[in-house]
From TrEMBL:
It comes from Silvibacterium dinghuense. This is Type II and III secretion system protein. Keywords: Signal. Residues 284-447 form the Type II/III secretion system secretin-like domain. Belongs to the bacterial secretin family.
């Protein structure tokens, strides 16, 4: 019986031996196949310069913001990420791991399958500098911008034409890294500066109507024209002894830079945009029709805001609250006067895109209020804001900001004016209505900054300057003599 059982066992072992050998071979093939698939998934990966993988680790390289898949032969059981701030890993399927790069740095990834076998990876994540260089070339063509990486920080160097280009390069690099060092320099010879000449004028409309003058009823190259009928049908003007004529119908560009002469000094006609409008304003100012409130000239860099304020600040009390029956009052200040804010941008074609906001404010005591014995005046304000596109040297005007006021003037004879009934005969009341209009004339000009290569000519003095040392020596000689 034992012999029979032993023979059966030997026969069974002989029968099982081929299957066991096949299973061992299949397991060895599966393990080698799994390693081959893992290696194939990292063919495109490049080892980082600053990392060294362990003997069993596979070094892989990724770009921040990108993702990749790692495939395994056997079903996955679990994964581990050593630095979640650099990469994130998810099991996308039973045999697939999705790895995403989040930030610059190095992290280990360990993958286990159901058999308990593990495969470690050393993944280095770096910034996509090539993509940034390509984006800068498309956004700022022709600019010399160098991009380098320094430990997760992007360093921009080189030279650009304008400060706006430098800011644009910094913002674009900020999309690739939160740590950006912008070392770009601006070519000072290419920096555009804008000089703004502003005339803020207040016109008395009553006097202007009595004057028979409409300041903005113009056409063609005319700066101003009268509304009376005192002109002849043909206007004659002279320049350097020669005369020319033109019809007064308004199409008189052929007169050129000439000022027609008339019998009345209060009626004149100006032609050509090359004439300085200041001449017109000065003439009206001498007639007490207008007053120039301010004539600021401000220069700023293209794209930068500039402001001007001519006035002051007046104090006014502000009630803070009541404590223990006592009122707490603080003093604050409010600016008033002539103010202008403007931001110019020089376009590629040479035009100036101008955002300008003039404001004129004054203290108004007719509408003052009283708080705890304090008389606080109101502020009358006239403000405008606009955006225009002009060429260098062109002017534009803002008008229509009216201020209408009515004042009462009383006069009386002392003593007699207080007599009942008959006292009205010794009193008089005069109502004065005034209407003023604010006119803002703005002229932007593109100016170039002075560079070291600019030829600065010395002033031509009628008497040559005296050397201080020579002067002292001659003075000592005179004293010794």
């Amino acid at each position: 019986m034992k012999k029979y059982a032993g023979g059966v066992m030997k026969s069974f072992e002989a029968l099982l031996l081929p299957f066991m050998l096949t299973a061992v071979a299949a397991g060895a093939w599966a393990q080698s196949r799994t390693q081959a698939v893992l290696s194939a998934s990292a063919v495109a990966a490049q080892p980082a310069d600053f990392t060294s993988a362990a003997p069993n680790e596979q070094a892989m390289h990724m770009v921040v913001g990108r993702s990749m898949y790692i495939n395994t032969r056997h079903r996955l059981s679990r994964i581990y990420v050593s630095n979640p701030g650099v990469i994130s890993a998810y099991v996308a399927s039973p045999n697939q791991v999705l790895v995403s790069s989040k930030d610059y740095g190095v992290s280990s990834l360990v993958v286990w399958d159901e058999s308990g076998e593990s495969q470690p990876y050393l993944i280095s994540s770096d910034l996509d500098l090539e993509q940034l260089r390509t984006s800068l070339q498309h956004s700022l063509p022709g600019e010399n911008v160098d991009v380098q990486g320094d430990g997760g920080r992007i360093v921009l160097s080189g030279m650009v034409a304008t400060p706006e280009d430098s800011d644009a390069a910094g913002k674009l690099a900020g999309m690739y890294s939160k740590n950006v060092f912008n070392a770009l320099s601006v070519n000072s010879a290419a920096v555009k500066q804008v000089r703004l000449k502003v005339r803020i004028v207040e016109v008395d409309r009553q006097k202007l109507m009595q004057f028979g003058f409409n300041f903005f009823n113009v056409g063609g190259n005319t700066l101003a024209q009268t509304t009376t009928t005192q002109f002849p049908s043909t206007l004659t003007a002279s320049t350097n002894g020669s005369s020319s004529s033109s019809s007064s119908s308004g199409t008189s560009a052929s007169v050129g830079n000439k000022i027609a002469s008339y019998t009345s000094p209060l009626n004149f006609l100006l032609y050509s945009s090359s004439l300085n409008i200041g001449a017109t304003l000065q003439d009206l100012e001498t007639k007490q029709i207008l007053q120039i409130l301010a004539e600021p000239t401000i220069t700023t860099i293209s794209g930068k805001e500039a402001s001007f304020l001519s006035g002051g600040e007046f104090p006014f009390p502000v009630v803070q609250g009541t404590t223990g029956g006592l009122t707490s009052i603080s003093i604050q200040f409010r600016p008033y006067g002539v103010k202008i804010d403007f931001t110019p941008v020089v376009n590629v074609d040479g035009t100036i895109q101008l955002k300008v906001a003039p404001e004129v404010s004054a203290l108004d005591y007719t509408n003052e209020v009283s708080i705890d014995g304090y008389d606080i005046p109101a502020i009358s304000t006239r403000r405008a804001e606009t955006q225009v596109v002009l060429r260098s040297g062109q002017s534009f005007a803002i008008s229509g900001l009216l201020d209408r006021r009515t004042t009462d003037a009383y006069s009386r004879t002392p003593g007699f004016s207080s007599i009942p009934i008959l006292g009205q005969l010794f009193k008089s009341k005069n109502l004065n209505h005034s209407t003023t209009e604010l006119i803002v004339i703005v002229t932007p000009e593109v100016v170039n900054p002075i560079t070291e290569s600019s030829n600065m000519s010395e002033p031509n003095l009628p008497v040559p300057s005296i050397d201080s040392k020579q002067f002292d020596e001659s003075l000592q000689k005179k004293k010794s003599n």
